Amino acid sequence: MRYFPTWKIWIVVLVSVLGLAFAAPNLLSRDLAHELPTWLPHKQVSLGLDLSGGAHLLLQIDEAAWRDGRLAWLEGNVRRTLRGERIGVRVTGGDDSHRQFTLRNADDAAAAARELDGLADDFTITVDETGTIIAAFTEVGLEAGLGDAIERTLEVLRGRIDPEGVLEPVITRQGRDRILVQVPGVDDTRVLRSRLGQTAKLTFHLVDQDTSVAAAEAGQLPVGSVLMPGREQPGQSHVLRAEILVAGESLESAAASFDQGRPVVAFSFDGVGAARFCDVTTENVGRLLAIVLDGVVISAPRINGPICQGSGIITGSFTVFETQELALLLRAGALPVPLAVVEERTVGPTLGADSIEAGKIAAIVSFAAVIVFMIACYGTLGAFANVALITNLILLMGLLSLLQATLTLPGIAGIVLTVGMAVDANVLIFERIREEQRHGRTILNAVETGFRRAMTTILDANITTAVAAFLLFFLGSGPVRGFGATLAIGILTSMFTAMLLTRLLTHVWLARYRPKTLGI
Amino acid sequence: MKRLRLVPTGLHLPFMDFHRIAVGVSVVLFIGSIALLLLSGLNFGIDFKGGTLIEIRTPQAADLAAVRSELNALDVGSIALQEFGSASDVLIRLPLLAGDESVQQAAIDRIQATLNGMYPDIEYRRVEFVGPQVSGELIEKGAQAVLVALVLMMIYIWFRFEWQFGVGAVLALAHDVGLTIGVFSLTRIEFDLPVVAALLTIVGYSMNDTVVVYDRIRENLRKYKQQPVRGVIDRSLNDTLSRTVMTSVTTMLALFALWLFGGAVIAPFVLAMIWGVLIGTYSSLFVAAPVLLYLRPVRVSDEREGLPDTP
After folding, report:
1. What does the pLDDT read at residue A3?
2. What ipTM was reported for this prediction?
3. Each residue of B252-293: pLDDT tens digit?
4. How far is CA A51 from CA A355, A402, B197, in A?
5. Are residues B169 and B280 in the same domain?
């Protein structure tokens, strides 16, 4: 105690000042903090959605559907390729990771192997001499394909959720097959959910007018035709030709509009799409053209004449809101893979504000209670512990701002808890000093021994809490993770303030005022 | 100036005189908690059970009966309504429905549409939905985290102290976790992810308390080699009692502030913590310490400090 190295003093002062500097921007309004020059600490604690309000949705991609789609693509490609070489083949088996084909003539095996070589990067295709072809996903190809689908999905979602670019949503891949969507400030998530949930795959088909719907429903569906539900009247179906004439990928733009006073979606095709649409409508004047969205027939108007200007409208019994949403989905594009919401946590603005307010009051009350209590119990030394406690909070806020850790409601609880627990280190030290004094040591000696002996106990005790805090990260989804963060940082800063700052203050006090008693 | 002393100086409470009663009570309570857990389980919240929770605020006091009948008419499973804090705040719970996530989403949409029809100025304070996959993962993660915490604590204490201390500390931890879970099973307070976070914090806090007591017992065992273990334990508990009480009180001050002002959302978390701090403090004195009495840590030869053996 007689010797407190100057460099230690400087470190304590420097760290405290830095903490203050990094914590300070939190006192400013958000706009003002943004205007601070970049060389100054200007980051504020970022609030979790449970405090700031907003929507949190965890989406899972439908991997089975994606595999199905990919395998169907493969199947078509194998048939097409071999048909081009006049090699007969049929599908004879398969599951969600492979397809098995059998050649009509086993003698074609060598030719088929040659043709199929390098057909698809994400499949291994083997052809044996009995004419059996096995095409299976490669591990790497599957993961890469899935990753690519997710990347494209993220892009589409960005366009759908935030078309104007004002919401600042966070849209990220989470784990292998999930996507996390966080949108600040959104509290009614019905629109969001419908935008995320729809694949929005738009296709144009000819209506099969040679078959009656009743016959098709009875099971007499001609080859190449499909039965699809209609949107207008529940239970009513349409028989369509399966062939996709033009698809949503060929759209260049889409917008909500009106036609004869009815809300409609107006669209226009890109060059290729326009040419194709022109051909189709020219060849099929008088027939019905079905507009299908995600497997549901929206409408099936009659083709009155060739449509070659590359644009058209989608009619149906829409409300204005529905046309706006549909146009938005069509502009952003179809999802490469269907999504399901597996978790949602949305907090409205008033609950978030209430939580912040409640957290503030709880923090202030606990803070005041602990401060009064410490002075009542330990007098001057208690006041030092309080200085340490305040510094601890400042450092905690500074570190939270610096690390851009997210402050959540349980995180505030963590801070309040830190207030209660942070004084523990000082309590340990002061109680030890009391004891040492009781054992007849002089003031200086008791203080020094107290600090020294309490040190190992403090370390031991804090390591155990730190272990718990780190496991909270592991457990951590959002709010709980925030709790772990504040607890862990709180332990770190409280050890610093209790062991160094309080010690420094005590040292200065003893050296300058030479008190007769410690008053504890 | 007169200082506040929660524990008078020179107090010598004969803690170990009560070891039989204390340990007996603890064993009975622990077994009771486990039995309760096995018999009636926990009232899992949606984090672990899956399902939907919607908190709404209506402009005037909500007509619970009307809301109930309107929502039940939707036929989307057994909906539970509960006033939450005030007459205009209502908590709506919907269990997990059969079918995939889209069925749930559709049900939420219909509920919201109905509520909007009843109260055009309704505010959605909270909408939480946890699907079956996610809830399963959260159970797994939660149990893992608590178990890993216990194992890590064990390793740490085994590394730091002799094995007898390790056994005592782990028994104390198991006691605290067991009794906390028992209280949640008994009171049917919702057991959710934040409660698991509280459990982990309790593990940390209880360990912290036990380590402080053990540190002193170990120190005194070296210092007073001639005294019986029982006397040394009593002395150590008395030495650290003032600190034990002080820290519990400051932590409790903070927790009560949270409980009174922190709002209903974190109330279960805070209740778990309050109980945990009480039980953690108790277990350091009456579970961790008596175990040493039974296991008799070896007192001779301390290799770390190279002290000579006493005859």
Report:
1. 62
2. 0.83
3. 988 998 899 888 888 888 999 999 999 999 999 999 999 988
4. 6, 19, 18
5. yes
- Residues from chain A that touch B139, judged by Cβ atoms under 8 A, are none
In the block, which residue shows the tokens 């064993």?
Answer: B27
Q: Does A347 contact B125 at a Cβ distance shorter than 8 Å? A: yes
Phi-psi region of A53 (alpha: psi -120 to 50; beta: other; left: phi over 0): left
Closest Cα partner for B84 from B76, B95, B93? Answer: B93
Q: Which of A168, A476, A148, A189 is nearest to A337 (CA)?
A: A148
d(CA B134, CA B301) in angstroms, rounded, equals: 53
Range of the domain at B115: 51-130
Beta bridge partners of A244: none
Note the CATH number of domain A200-334.
Answer: 3.30.1360.200
Whether B197 and A484 lie within 8 Å, measured CB to CB: yes
The count of CB pairs under 8 A between chains A and B is 237
Return the beta strands (E) in A62-130 as ranges. Answer: 89-94, 98-103, 123-127
In terms of CATH architecture, what is A6-45+348-513?
Up-down Bundle (1.20)
Residues B209 and B261 in one domain: yes
Residue A288 DSSP label: B
Written as one string, the DSSP assignment of A206-225 is EB-TTS-HHHHHTT-PPTTE
Number of domains within chain B: 2
pLDDT one-digit tens code per residue, B166-187: 889 989 999 999 999 999 999 9
